[in-house]
Specification:
With 245 residues, this protein is mainly alpha-helical. The protein is globular. The chain has nine helices and no strands. α2 packs parallel to α5.
Length: 245
């Protein structure tokens, strides 16, 4: 059960973040040329991989098991609560709903207003690099945190690999899949899952023994789903208009 939950959470989180990075790279490529867009994205990907190769062993080497679980749980809670907060606000109409397709159109329009430089287009490379590096860094930290607990590195890496393959396939037929994805709901679901994992690991790090063992992830996730639903309903009733950001 924990294997499937870890793999599913990693896959969904990685897919969402990489879709946003893909939208930026595609927008830069269409507006300024794919050569510089892909070079910027490749440099960012290499940077993220190198950083994770440094952080991963440092996180795992010689660390007390309970301390490691506390660190992993805290990291996942930081990510999960932020995703959960934004998801609730979007579902309640307090923030604009997530759409990588809309981000793609906006980025392409913004870049298209500026004339590309002859030769090396450093502006295009920088925009592509920044988008991929920031999204990739969050992906790397989430995967490291999910995989940092004993026995969970393999499902976390498998989930990440599946997500990358899926996003690569979507990149081949860009616009229609992006329009169809319910990104707001998916992000809220990832927020629920990351918060559940974070609570579970942090409590284990404090030597709490969960009733039913790993199945505690299911009732924790259910608790956060109900909490998110109640918060969304309350905000929907009290806030009349959506914010534009």
């Amino acid at each position: 059960m924990s294997f499937v939950l870890t793999m599913g959470t990693a896959a969904t989180a990685v897919a969402i973040e990489m879709l946003e990075a893909l939208a930026i790279v595609m927008a830069v490529g269409m507006a300024r040329g794919f050569r510089d867009a892909l070079l910027g994205a490749l440099a960012a990907a290499v940077g993220v991989v190198l950083l994770c190769l440094v952080l991963g062993p440092a996180l795992l080497a010689g660390t007390d098991l309970h301390f490691l679980r506390l660190v992993v749980g805290t990291l996942l809670l930081l990510f999960g609560l932020e995703w959960l907060r934004k998801g609730i606000l979007r579902m309640a109409g307090r923030r604009r709903r997530s759409s990588s397709h809309d981000d793609f159109l906006e980025q392409r329009a913004a870049l298209g207003r500026h004339t590309a430089a002859e030769g090396t287009d450093w502006a295009a490379r920088l925009v592509s690099f920044k988008g991929v590096f920031l999204e990739g860094l969050e992906v790397g930290l989430i995967v490291l945190a999910l995989g940092g607990a004993p026995g969970r590195l393999t499902p976390a890496l498998l989930g990440a690999a599946l997500a990358l393959a899926l996003v690569g396939a979507i990149g081949l037929v860009m616009q229609r899949p992006l329009r169809r994805l319910p990104e707001t709901q998916l992000k809220l679901g990832v927020g629920v899952a990351l918060t559940a994992f974070g609570t579970f690991f942090a409590a284990e790090g404090l030597r709490v023994e969960w009733p039913l063992g790993d199945l505690a992830l299911l009732y924790l996730a259910s608790l956060f789903v109900v909490t998110a639903w109640l918060a969304t309903r309350r905000l929907t009733r009290t806030v009349p208009a959506a914010e534009a950001t």
